[in-house]
Write a structure and sequence with these properties.
single chain; mainly alpha; 12 helices; about 70% helix; about 0% strand; elongated
Length: about 210
């Protein structure tokens, strides 16, 4: 359980999980107070006691999912034993691994992306602040900040692509994609090897 889950009571977490499941299964526009209450197995009045309107429910769901996502990444960083890799890139590797694994869950970062994409009037202040934090982590990860940013945004793109249910990437290609992205966080391999010399250096001078 993440520290943010521990800060919420069981009913609140149950409601947020139910809301996230609806968004992922049926789309953000299908999320209503009634559908969330039904999915959570409580009355609408019980839901309203914790989340008085739909805007509050969505805001709290997005904040909960983002915090949970970032908690998981920090746990991966703390537990990382990348003894065969360069010292840099731990946060980026954790981000990539969490991104590739989180799609197997019902409550994940892609749910936030789907919600923000579908509901254009949603308050994005919290999301923008989290993005600034993630960008700061990318730029301070002791690898080339441009590559760290590219890899993070590529991971986000994969999550959103798969969340739409339109992915044409098979399992084998997906595994190769993850491995390549992880390899690119190791500067000994990515920045000194032939891949950098033949592609990145002449095009982007990095």
């Amino acid at each position: 359980m993440s520290k943010h889950s521990a800060e919420l009571n069981e009913t609140k977490v149950k409601i947020l999980h139910a809301a996230a499941l609806i968004v992922k299964r049926e789309g953000a526009t299908a999320l209503t107070l009634e559908s969330a209450a039904k999915e959570a197995g409580i009355s609408k009045g019980g839901l309203l006691y914790h989340y008085p309107n739909k805007d509050t429910l969505i805001k709290c769901m997005n904040e909960y999912l983002l915090n949970q996502y970032l908690d998981n990444i920090q746990t991966r960083v703390a537990e990382a034993k990348d003894v065969n890799l360069s010292n840099g890139g731990k946060w980026t590797r954790a981000y990539i691994k969490e991104s590739f694994e989180t799609q197997a869950q019902d409550n994940d970062y892609s749910t936030v992306l789907l919600t923000l994409a579908a509901l254009q009037n949603e308050d994005r202040t919290m999301y923008q602040e989290k993005q600034k934090y993630m960008q700061k982590c990318s730029e301070s990860d002791k690898i080339n900040p441009l590559m760290a940013t590219i890899l993070r945004l590529a991971a986000d793109g994969l999550q959103f692509h798969e969340a739409l249910g339109q992915s044409a990437i098979n399992t084998e290609m997906r595994e190769k994609l993850e491995k390549t992205m992880l390899d690119l966080t190791d500067e000994r391999e990515a920045w000194q090897g032939s891949w950098r010399k033949s592609y990145l250096l002449p095009r982007y001078n990095i």
